[in-house]
Description:
- There is one protein chain.
- The chain is an all-alpha fold.
- It has helices spanning 3-6, 23-32, 39-60, 105-110.
- Helix 2 (23-32) packs across helix 3.
- It starts with a helix and ends in an 18-residue tail after the last helix.
Amino acid sequence: MSEAAQHPAVPTETQHPASSISRSDIEHVAALAALALTPEELDRLGSDLRSILGYVAELQQVDTTGVLPLTHVSELFAPSATEATVNAPAETSLRADEPRPSLPRDLVMQGAPATDGTYFQVPKVIER
């Protein structure tokens, strides 16, 4: 099975992603993000999304043969023993991850906009 068949959101060579996004797709994305947009804002969002998808289509054309995958840029600075990384520094520039005491709760709560003394209080944002 081809990659495009496995992932329907991935456009094929004959389908340009920017041309496949509809007004209803844009409205759906806005609804998922809980955005109440005017028609002008929907048009602007559509234009932005088409631009982003066009750029992603360009990136998909880049030959990445021989490029090792990584999940975080810090992997470039701390290569594993099994994978050789070209031009990577021998030592990491990140500090050691060592346990340290937390800040005192009363000090942290002083900077909170709303608190019950123990926890931060935040407005409810999920209505569904």
